[in-house]
Each structure stands twice: as structure tokens, then as C-alpha cells.
Write a structure and sequence with these properties.
single chain, alpha/beta, eight-stranded mixed beta sheet, two-stranded antiparallel sheet, 9 helices, 10 strands, 33% helix, binds 3,4-dihydroxybenzoic acid, binds fe (iii) ion, dioxygenase activity, Xdiol_dOase_suB, oxidoreductase, dioxygenase, Class III extradiol dioxygenase family protein
Length: 282
């Protein structure tokens, strides 16, 4: 059976891509953010995942407000990037893993998740930028991906409880995949931020730190909040932290725990509180 080796999470602010492109990683503004990654690069060099299941939110590239699936699973052989152009130049297509995609799709539908299956799927900065952050030496990260898009754009959003259940079901499905490959789960987005409206620039450090702590010690903590409570606490776009919840839920399985490999929290990049986290299953 496939091995679920652990989870990764990072913010996906497009401006980070611009900084990578211009080589600004050591500038005073950027260094405290990029300094969060080298311990995770070392760990990835050791554990070497073959496939990454990515929980991310599409920002209007692949799904727009007229048709917005709550959960969509990619089942393509490759995923092309066609970003909105704020940050990193368009990246080469990322290879998919259709065998794991279809296994996940079958298992999720059997567990009553009404997902959209996507045999063609464009991916934006939320799916591409994290691979530049976690595998900076590679033009294309040495992994195959299965993207899972969770709506955090058009209300009503899925509840935190539902997202947690989805993550758990994805974790169980990965573990029942008949394969020798090593799989990691990844979350992209957050932490607290609000890009528009009267509260533009809103950041909530206390909530973010509590949420980060819950990732280690109390993974279901954030499921107590409704979508509007999450907006109040984390900002309109801070609800992207739902991806982190799905990633963490995927790592919960009876009798096993997680070890924190590394985390970092830095305010602000752009208008956003940034976080990065790596957890290893034990
Ligand atoms: C920013 C953050 C996001 O999550 C995003 O998708 C776009 C922009 C920002 O902080 O600039
Ligand atoms: Fe975003």
C-alpha cells in the first residue's frame, strides 16, 4: 500500500513568486519569510515524496463565480499553469498522477462526497508557487500531483467540519491506494488576510498562532467555527486556512500521530500573515 509520509502547508501570495523570479530571497523584507524553508528542504531531501495531493483554492482561473464547485478533484495527466501574472512567470506543466486521482475519486464518492472530477484543470499561483518554495532547485518539482480545489471564494463555503471530513477521507484513501509510492499532502493559502473592503489589511496574529498550535496538538480545534466566524477571525481570504485543516485531517488515523518538522510565521508579506509548516507522520 502507498505510504502517507506527512504534510506540508504554506501561504501562496503571488508576490512571493515575483521575489523568487528577481532573486530577492535575502533582502530584509523577504528573508524572514524564506528563512522558514531550508529545514523543510532538508527533510524533503530525506523523505522524498513521489506524489503530492494538493489542497488549494482556485482564484477564478479554472472556476469562476458562475460555476463554483465546493470540492473538485483533478484527474489529468498534466496540469498547465495560466496564472494572473502578478508574480512568477508562467511555469511548465506539472505532471499528474491519474491512478491516484481515480482511486481518490472512487473512494470519496463511495463515502458520499459529491465532488466534481476534472480531467482538464488549469492551476493558478495557489497550486504552482508552493512547489517553487518547497523544491527551489527544480524547474519542475520531482513529484506528480493530484490537485483538490476547495471553494473559499464564493459563499456559502463548505463548513470547517466538512472540510475536515474530506481531508480525513483523502488520508484514508491514500493509505488504501495499491501502490509502492510515497505520498505527501499539501495545503496552500492563508494565514489571516483580507485583501478588500473596509477591513483590507486585517491580520490576526493571536488567532493564527492558536491555529498553528492546533495543527500539532488539537487538529479539530478550528472545526468549531462557522464560515462567517472564520471570516471574522481570519479575514475574507484568511478562510484559505481551510486547506490547512484538510491537510491536517488527512494525517489523522487511529493510533498514529505527527511530529512537527518545522514551522515559521511572519507578518506581513503583501497584506498577509504568512505561515509554513511541515509535519511528519509517526
Ligand atoms: C494575496 C494573498 C492571496 O492568498 C492571494 O491569493 C492573492 C494575493 C496577497 O496577500 O497579496
Ligand atoms: Fe489566495
Amino acid at each position: 500500500m502507498a505510504q502517507l509520509i506527512g504534510g506540508l502547508a504554506t501561504s501562496h501570495i503571488p508576490a512571493i513568486g515575483g521575489a523568487i523570479h528577481k532573486g530577492l530571497q535575502n533582502e530584509p523584507y523577504w528573508k524572514p519569510f524564506f528563512d522558514g524553508f531550508p529545514p523543510i528542504h532538508q527533510w524533503l531531501g530525506k523523505v522524498k515524496p513521489d506524489v503530492v495531493v494538493v489542497f488549494y483554492n482556485d482564484h477564478g482561473l479554472n472556476f469562476f463565480l458562475d460555476k463554483m464547485p465546493t470540492f473538485a478533484v483533478g484527474a489529468a495527466a498534466t496540469y498547465s499553469n495560466a496564472d494572473e501574472g502578478w508574480g512568477i512567470p508562467t511555469l511548465p506543466p506539472i505532471p499528474g498522477c491519474p491512478d491516484l486521482s481515480w482511486h481518490l475519486i472512487r473512494e470519496l464518492i463511495a463515502k458520499e462526497f459529491d465532488i466534481v472530477t476534472c480531467q482538464e484543470m488549469l492551476v493558478d499561483h495557489a497550486c504552482t508557487l508552493p512547489f517553487k518554495l518547497f523544491w527551489p532547485e527544480h524547474a519542475v518539482a520531482p513529484v506528480q500531483i493530484v490537485p483538490i480545489s476547495i471553494n473559499t471564494v464564493q459563499f456559502p463555503l463548505p463548513t470547517a467540519k466538512r472540510v475536515y471530513k474530506l481531508g480525513k477521507a483523502v488520508g484514508e484513501a491514500i493509505r488504501s491506494w495499491n501502490s509502492n509510492l510515497r505520498v505527501a499532502v499539501m495545503a496552500t493559502g492563508g494565514l489571516s488576510h483580507q485583501l478588500d473592503g473596509e477591513r483590507a489589511g486585517f491580520i490576526n496574529k493571536q488567532f493564527d498562532l492558536q491555529f498553528l498550535d492546533s495543527m500539532e496538538t488539537n487538529p479539530e480545534w478550528a472545526t468549531q467555527f462557522t464560515d462567517l466566524e472564520l471570516v471574522e477571525k481570519a479575514g475574507t481570504q484568511g478562510v484559505e486556512l481551510l486547506m490547512w485543516l484538510a491537510m491536517r485531517a488527512a494525517l489523522t488515523v487511529a493510533g498514529s500521530g505527527v511530529r512537527k518538522v518545522h514551522s515559521n510565521y511572519h507578518i506581513p508579506i503583501s497584506n498577509t500573515a504568512t505561515g509554513v509548516l511541515a509535519l511528519e507522520t509517526v
